[in-house]
Write a structure and sequence with these properties.
Elements (H helix, E strand, L loop, with lengths): L5 H26 L11 E3 L2 H10 L4 E8 L16 E10 L11 E3 L26 E3 L8
Antiparallel strand pairs: 1-5, 2-3, 3-4
Length: 146
């Protein structure tokens, strides 16, 4: 990762809005005609505390971020439902070769199948051997402008 100026960040966000988000929103509206307000997410938010918990629980030296999509309903209120929206999945990594100088090529995802309470479909209760997702998406949950 390298430092990026506000100007570059804003240009990248604008390009995303004009291309990927616009097209994805059009597709979502076709897929979910019963949710005419649906829009693709433009951002997500995660706290430092949660990131540190994920990294510390896995003794990680890196973080891989995957793109994903909510494949089922997430909320009883349709206006707050993330079903169909893309999301980011945070996965702690550990370098298998050099923990002092981790690289993307030699870093291994710290994900393992963990059975919780005997139910193979139950979600983990801690970040150990698990990824992190279900971050706050905007929209529908956008920050209040100053």
């Amino acid at each position: 990762m390298q430092p990026t100026s506000k100007k570059t960040v804003m240009r990248m966000r604008d390009e995303y809005e004009k291309t990927i988000r616009k097209s994805s929103t059009e597709n979502l509206k076709k897929r979910f005609p019963d949710r005419p307000w649906i829009e693709e997410a433009s951002s997500t938010w995660v706290s430092r505390k949660e990131l540190e918990e994920l990294l510390n629980a896995n003794n990680a030296d890196g973080l891989r971020i995957y793109y994903g999509c909510h494949f089922q309903s997430t909320h009883s209120n349709p206006k707050n439902d993330y079903h169909g929206l893309h999301n980011l999945i945070f996965v702690a990594t550990k370098d298998s070769v050099d923990t002092q100088n981790p690289t993307t090529e030699t870093s291994v995802d710290q994900l393992r199948d963990v059975t919780v309470t005997g139910d193979p479909n139950a979600e983990p209760t801690s970040y150990a051997d698990a990824g992190g997702e279900f971050t706050v998406l905007c929209p529908p949950s956008c920050p209040t402008p100053p």
